[in-house]
C-alpha cells in the first residue's frame, strides 16, 4: 500500500513537472515570436526612413552617418531573422539536439550568429561615434581627407572584425556548446577545458566593452564641442541642426547599448574568471534576452528622434502643458492691440496684424511694413 502511494506521488510530481515544462516552453516560444515580429517590423520601418533620408540628403557628413545607421538597422534586421528562425527551429524540434544536430553543425552556426550579430551593432555604434567626432572636432580634415569609399571600407572592416571573432572558436576547434536551457548555443561557460575556453568569451566581452567605452568617449567629446560652439555662436543654427540631431541619436544608441549589453558582457567576464568550476547560473539566459532588446530599441531611435517628430512632440507638449501661457500671451496681444488702436488712430488694419511680432520695448512702437 505504501509503495503504491509512493508511486502515485512520483507520477503526480512528474506530471506536474511536465506541465510546468510545457508551460515554460510555450511562454518562451511566444516571447521569441513576439520579439522576432516586433524586431522585424521596427527595423524595416527604420530602414525605410533611413533610405528615404539618404536619398534626399546631399550633405557629406549626414550621408556618412546615414550609411552607418542604415547598415546598423540592416544588421539588426538580419539578426532577428536568422537568430529568431534558429530559436523557433530548436523549439519546434523539442530541443533534442542529439537527434537533429548530431555533428553540432546547427549549434556552431547558432553560436557564430549570436556572436556576430551581438558584436556588429556595438562596433557599428562605435564607428558612428568616431566618424561624428572627427566630423565635428576636425571638420576640415573630415571634408578633405575622408571620402565616401573610406566610410564604406570602415563599414566592411567592422563587419569583418565581428565575423573573425565569431568564427575564431571554430578555427581553433573549440565549437560552440549547447547551454543549460538547451535553447541556444554559446561559448563554453560551464565546463571550460583549458585556457582557450576562458580566452574566447573574454575576447568577446572585452571587445564589446571597448566598443562601448570608445562610443562614450567620442560622443562626450562631440557633445562638448557642439555645446561650446553653440554657446560661443561660432556656427549658425542651420549648420548645427543636423549635427545635434545625429548626436541625440548617438547618445540614445549608446545608452541603449550600455543598458542592454552591459550586463551580458560583465556577466560573461565574471563567469569566465570565476575561481571554481561552478555551473553557470540561469541568469545568463536572462541577460542574453535583455541584450536582444538592443536590436528592437535601436531602430526606434531613428524613427522617433528625428527633427520633424521632435518638433511635433515639442509643439504637442507645449500646447498641452502651457495653455495658461498661451491665454496670457493672447491677452497681452489683445491689450496691446486695443491700446494701439486708441492711442494711434492713424494706424491701419494691416499694421495692427503685425503687432504680435513686435519686439518688446519701452520706447515708441513702430509698425512693421
From TrEMBL:
It is found in: Cell membrane. Residues 42-302 form the G-protein coupled receptors family 1 profile domain. GO terms for cellular component: plasma membrane. It is a multi-pass membrane protein. Pfam families: 7tm_1. The chain crosses the membrane at residues 28-51, 63-91, 103-124, 154-173, 198-227, 247-270, 282-305. GO terms for biological process: adenylate cyclase-activating G protein-coupled receptor signaling pathway; inflammatory response; positive regulation of cytosolic calcium ion concentration; response to lipid. InterPro entries: GPCR_Rhodpsn, GPCR_Rhodpsn_7TM, Prostanoid_rcpt, Thbox_rcpt. Keywords: Cell membrane, Disulfide bond, G-protein coupled receptor, Glycoprotein, Membrane, Receptor, Transducer, Transmembrane, Transmembrane helix. GO terms for molecular function: prostaglandin F receptor activity; thromboxane receptor activity. Belongs to the G-protein coupled receptor 1 family. This is Prostaglandin F2-alpha receptor. It comes from Collichthys lucidus (Big head croaker).
Amino acid at each position: 500500500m505504501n509503495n503504491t502511494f509512493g508511486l502515485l506521488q512520483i507520477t503526480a510530481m512528474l506530471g506536474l513537472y511536465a506541465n510546468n515544462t510545457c508551460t515554460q516552453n510555450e511562454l518562451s516560444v511566444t516571447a521569441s515570436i513576439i520579439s522576432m515580429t516586433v524586431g522585424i517590423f521596427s527595423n524595416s520601418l527604420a530602414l525605410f526612413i533611413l533610405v528615404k533620408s539618404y536619398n534626399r540628403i546631399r550633405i557629406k557628413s549626414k550621408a556618412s552617418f546615414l550609411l552607418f545607421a542604415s547598415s546598423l538597422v540592416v544588421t539588426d534586421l538580419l539578426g532577428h531573422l536568422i537568430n529568431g528562425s534558429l530559436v523557433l527551429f530548436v523549439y519546434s524540434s523539442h530541443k533534442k539536439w542529439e537527434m537533429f544536430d548530431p555533428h553540432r553543425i546547427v549549434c556552431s552556426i547558432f553560436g557564430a550568429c549570436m556572436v556576430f550579430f551581438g558584436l556588429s551593432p556595438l562596433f557599428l555604434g562605435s564607428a558612428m561615434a568616431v566618424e561624428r567626432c572627427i566630423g565635428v572636432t576636425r571638420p576640415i580634415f573630415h571634408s578633405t581627407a575622408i571620402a565616401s569609399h573610406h566610410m564604406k571600407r570602415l563599414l566592411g572592416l567592422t563587419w569583418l572584425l565581428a565575423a573573425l571573432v565569431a568564427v575564431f572558436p571554430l578555427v581553433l576547434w573549440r565549437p560552440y556548446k549547447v547551454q543549460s536551457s538547451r535553447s541556444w548555443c554559446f561559448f563554453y561557460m560551464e565546463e571550460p577545458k583549458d585556457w582557450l575556453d576562458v580566452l574566447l568569451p573574454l575576447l568577446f566581452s572585452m571587445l564589446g566593452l571597448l566598443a562601448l567605452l570608445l562610443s562614450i568617449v567620442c560622443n562626450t567629446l562631440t557633445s562638448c564641442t557642439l555645446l561650446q560652439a553653440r554657446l560661443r555662436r561660432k556656427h549658425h543654427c542651420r549648420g548645427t541642426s543636423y549635427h545635434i540631431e545625429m548626436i541625440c541619436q548617438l547618445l540614445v544608441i549608446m545608452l541603449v547599448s550600455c543598458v542592454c549589453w552591459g550586463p551580458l558582457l560583465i556577466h560573461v567576464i565574471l563567469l569566465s574568471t570565476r575561481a571554481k568550476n561552478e555551473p553557470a547560473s540561469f541568469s545568463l539566459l536572462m541577460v542574453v534576452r535583455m541584450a536582444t532588446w538592443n536590436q528592437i530599441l535601436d531602430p526606434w531611435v531613428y524613427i522617433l528622434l528625428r527633427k520633424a517628430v521632435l518638433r511635433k512632440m515639442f509643439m504637442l507638449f507645449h500646447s498641452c502643458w502651457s495653455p495658461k501661457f498661451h491665454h496670457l500671451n493672447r491677452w497681452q496681444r489683445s491689450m496691446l492691440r486695443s491700446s494701439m488702436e486708441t492711442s494711434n488712430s492713424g494706424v491701419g488694419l494691416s499694421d495692427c496684424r503685425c503687432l504680435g511680432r513686435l519686439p518688446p520695448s519701452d520706447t515708441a512702437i513702430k509698425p512693421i511694413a
